[in-house]
Amino acid sequence: MYINFWYPLCTTEELQEEPLQLEIFSLKLVAFRDSTGAAHVLSDTCAHRGGSLSKGWVEGDCVVCPYHGWQYAGSGACNNIPSQVKGKPPGRAKVDSYPVDERYGIVFAFLGDLPANERQPIYDIPQADLEGWRASKPAVMDVNCYYERSVENGLDPYHNEFVHASQGLPIPNPATAVFEDIPWGTKFMVGYGELQEKPSDTEELRSNPDELRAGSWYYGPNTLITDIQFTTTNSFIQYAFEAPISETVTRIYLVNLRNVMLEPELDEKVMQINRKVALEDVAILENLWPLRTPDTNTKELLTEGDEMVLRYRKHLKEWDAKGWRIDIKAIKQSEGDIAWAIPCPARHEAGNWVLDSVPLLPQN
After folding, report:
1. Using CA atoms, how far apart are residues 115 and 217, in angstroms rounded to an integer?
2. Alpha-carbon distance 339 to 316, whole Å?
3. Is the overall model pTM greater than 0.70, yes or no?
4. Structurally, how many domains does the chain consist of?
5. For 352, phi and psi rounded to 5 degrees?
6. How confident is the model at residue 85, as a pLDDT?
7. Residue 280 and residue 160: Cα distance in Å, rounded?
8. I need a labelling partner for 255 at 20 to 30 A (CA). Which of 17, 70, 93, 136 fits?
C-alpha cells in the first residue's frame, strides 16, 4: 500500500450533509461538505483527546468533534475550542487534510505529502464527454482480497479461457499481443479467436473472431482499465479505481462505458453483464494464497504469459524505492497505542503535529 497517489474514498451520493467515516490502509478518515458543498477529507482523530470527528457533525464550514466540540476547518486547522476562553487555538490544534477531487461520481483524495506539481493526475476518462458513449453510475464492490492481487488479475489475459464462461471462455493469441509504456504504467492489447462457448444472446455483444480484441492497463498502483472490442465498432471499456481498505479487503469503484446498447433502459442489463464477469473473478481472487503478493518473484513461477504482471511489479519496486510503501506490520504492532496519520502536503510547510506520520518502509 502506497502513499502519494489518488484513492477513491466514496461516491458523491454517499457524501451528503453528515460527516462520513472512511477507511483506507486500515486507517480512519473523515469526509464532509462545507457550507458551499465542497468536499474535504481529514484524518479522523481529534488532536485533543482522540475523538472521532466522523461521529460529530458539520457546523458551517467545520466538522465538530463530538467529544469536546473542537471545530476543524477543511484545511485541517482547528478554528474554535469551546473550553478556551482567551486567545486563538494553539498551532498544534490541527489534523492532516488531503487534496480532494470529485470525478465520475466518485470522491477522490490524494493521500500523501507531495506538492501539486509532483502528483500523479487522476486518470482521465476520454470517453466520458464523447458523443456516442454512455457511462454508468459508479458501481461499488467489496472483494476479500489484497488490491495488488486484484489489479494483477485484470492484467492477465490468460485466465479468461478458464474463468470467464460468461464471455465465452475466449482464448488469446499471444502472437498478437502489443505492449505500450504509458506514464505511470503499461498497457497491452491482444487478439482473440473463436469463443469456446456462446456467451450471450445479446446481438450487440456478439463478437467477430477476426475483430475481437481486448486489453488492460494499469495506471499507478491502484487504477486498472479494461477495454473489450467485440467488433471494430462495438466496445465496452471499464475503469476500476481500487481502494485498499486493508490487506484483506479491496473496495473497487467501477465506471463502465459503452458505445453500444446506449438506451438508458438498458443500463441495468449492462450492469448485470459486467457484474457477472466480475463475480467470476471474485470467486478466484478470494481463494488465492498467500493473500498478498510475495515480496520476491522467486516465490511464484512466472512465465512469459505473465509479462504484464512482471511490468506492474517492476513499477511497484520503483515506488518502493521512493519510500512510498506503508509499513503495515508496524501499524499492526502498535494498534491501539498510536494514532497514525497519512502525511499531508501541509507537513512540508509546518511542523509540530500531534498525530504521528504513518510508518513507511525504508527506501531501497
Report:
1. 26
2. 27
3. yes
4. 2
5. 65, 50
6. 85
7. 10
8. 17
